[in-house]
Amino acid sequence: MSPERKYGPGVMRYVEESRKYLEERRALIERVRKRKFDTIAVHGLYSLEESLSRNQGALTEPAYFSAAQSYRDADELEAALAYLIPTWCYSRIANPTTYFLQDTVALLEGYGTGCDTACVVTSSGMSAIALATDAFVVKQKAGPEKINFVSSVQLYGGTFQNFNVRKQQERGIEFRRVFHPDDLEEWKSRIDEDTRFLYMEAPSNPQQSFADLRALSDLAHSWEIPFIIDSTCATPALMRPIAHGADVVVHSLTKSMTAGGLAIGGAIISRKSIVTKVKNDNPLFKESFAEYIQFLPFRDQGPCPSPLNALFTLNDLRTLRSRMDLVSRNCQAVADFLGRHPRVSTVDYLGLPGFRYHELARRYMRLADSDDGQGGEVNRYGHLMSFVVDGPPENARRVFDNFQLIFRATDLGRIKSVATIPAISTHQQQGEEARQLAGIPPQMIRLCVGAEDPGDVIADLEQALAAL
User: Fold this and answer.
1) I need a surface site. Which of 121, 144, 237, 248 has the fewest CB within 10 A?
2) Is the whole-model pTM more than 0.85?
3) What is the DSSP string of 403-439?
4) Nearest residue to 131 via CA among 98, 165, 162, 164
5) SS3 for 285?
């Protein structure tokens, strides 16, 4: 039924009124998409016009702390709640401040890809992962139904628990594991007609595993299923998987995007449109997956970020590219040092030429708008690395306990250097067998290098290793 026949003239007046706004917004998006990465990160869609006409000239996007939006009359309320006009309605569903953040993240992930993108931001990275993946494992018929998905086993511990416990053990959805993500044949061997999506974390936390993103996208699409990737550690400053065919990208905004450590958040970014064989009556499911998530599952489950967290993230995003360049260079220097240290048995970092996944990462991880002097972009490999201390697990704990500058915490992506021992923290719940399969020994220390002078970080590592 068309809106003209279903709704009264008062409602349709608001629909007509909103069309001009939507046309202006589309024109603004097209203008902004032509700007450079840093300009988009600084401004997003918050324009001079927006500042002057709606926000009393505020230079920075305002934080809207209201829980709900008021309407002029019953007709506007009806039009809004039927999603016929732009609205935020209630902060469990959306909020003007989170809209500013969503617009910016969508534009950054779509930068240079030639693709239209949509984004919904959530209360945490895990809520983004759960929402993005749950949408594809819904039952499609009455009675018993076999459903599976295929994922690399090198995952953040919380993701592993969501897949292994919440989905497989509690709901009977099979979690098929790939142990060597750079082996395309292993991926192929796990897929069948009941597979709903492929999932990869790249670079993975903490092992730094990687895969051929274009090949995985093509493989997924040959089975009419989406390729979903967690690109938290790269950020769109270093890698934009949608350019290589990915359908859905998820982030923990808590990490590199909010490097100051003041906020928690997540994001789902989708291309328009995605590949999927899951049948859904709502056309947004395929045409604009992130918007579908916001207007339906997100609305009903309520994993909303606070406006203040959205504002903290927006402010940190403004320097994302230059910051990721800096911390990547710092991490490279630290990895080079650890690779030469006699008490370190292995170093996992994508920037090391001898590392297993280096060549794959070199193909995909490049600093946006950089110049290598030959018309190409410069490779940068991020802030995250891990290293294995020689000897028994107690040696890793001694080194860890002797840090004087590096913070001991489960966090990562900070402006400050942070370390943890994954086997006793982020990946403890997986159990020993699963950690062995994922390549996480008890002697491993995960290190996220911040923006300090790398010489000071190296000095701290040197004195801590000297305790052995």
Assistant:
1) 144
2) yes
3) -SSSEESS--S-SS-EEE-GGGTTTGGG-HHHHHHHT
4) 162
5) helix
